[in-house]
Amino acid sequence: MSDPSPELTAFRERVAEVGAATLNGLRALEVVARHLHPKSLPTLREQLVPLRDRLAEAHAPLLELPPPEGGEGLRDALAAGAGSALSALEGFCTDDGAAGPAGVPRILEAMRDACRAQERLYPLRFALPPLGTLYAEEPWHPRLHELDPEPPPGVSPGLYNGGEGRNREVRGGFVFYLPETTDGKTPLPLVVALHGGYGHGADFLWTWLREARSRRFMLLAPTSRSTTWSLQAPAAAGKALASMVAFLGERFPVDPTRVLLTGLSDGATFSLLAGLAEDAPYTALAPVSGVLHPLNMAAGNLARAADRPIYLVHGAQDWMFPVALARMARDELEKAGARLVYREIEDLSHTYPREENARILEWFDPSLALPTGDASGPS
Hints:
The structure is a single chain. The protein has 13 helices and eight strands. With 379 residues, the chain is an alpha/beta fold. It folds into two domains: 6-125, Four Helix Bundle (Hemerythrin (Met), subunit A) (Up-down Bundle), CATH 1.20.120; 150-368, Rossmann fold. An eight-stranded mixed β-sheet has the order 1-2-4-3-5-6-7-8, with helices on both faces. Strand 7 (309-315), helix 12 (323-335) and strand 8 form a beta-alpha-beta unit. The longest helix has 29 residues, at 6-34.
């Protein structure tokens, strides 16, 4: 086989450079998102600036390079995903002078760009295996190909839209993920994950997809009909959410004995309102950084909390919902007889603790635990 041409070599090197800079930027953004607090913004920006500059330098010439035959799709897809990652880094690193919580909306938009980058790069996990590590937990990294086997006849795993689920301009739909390793017959657990205020299911999906692929469960990420979940009149929204679960159960092998409802912030608050409602289809609840809304008392939800598995997570540094509110919720749920696990995380602000996913899943269903001590990956 002849040596590749200089043009092909240059193209491959540029793709590898852009892929590596994108991967490093997105991984750093995930760490930053975990430690996000208004007071920490200057320090977090300093950490991201070199990564932004590196990606900007690599990304700019990518579209100028002529791709090899058949390589235009790879180039354009990588450019789009890397461009979204760069927008996220630039949005985070730009200091417009907004101090404290006033600067949070712009930071949240940067985090949404990071989610869009993951969405755009997801199809490239085959062509660029290093990017595939974004979508699998670490024990799987040496064996990523095993997470994408040839599907059985008639089975179409991957991402589905309910309505215009991935259109960020449209609300009320959902995104659903069916693991690529499914056989289409074996009942699988379902995790229903609710975004926070002003969020979108198409973005919040990526908070859980890595675990869904690695541990083989279905994932539903709905979008609220308004800018946030209906906390003052939750009955209709709760029924709509339950109807989504029923809709999926009619079409996919959802195990009705293993349905977890979780959420962040307003999504966590709503997960208690909807999850404790009469005839709710959820077998366990895991609210993160939310509150126990007073309507739970008025609706009789606390009576239904008896013997319900609930995993309550809150940050000691939460600046939006002070931790005292979580402790009150803990006390009320324990008094109601819930099977409660309360996790108060010392360094957590009002953001999502991605590392808690593994604990939540193993509490919810021990069979979802990843094996430990095997450097070659899961067996």
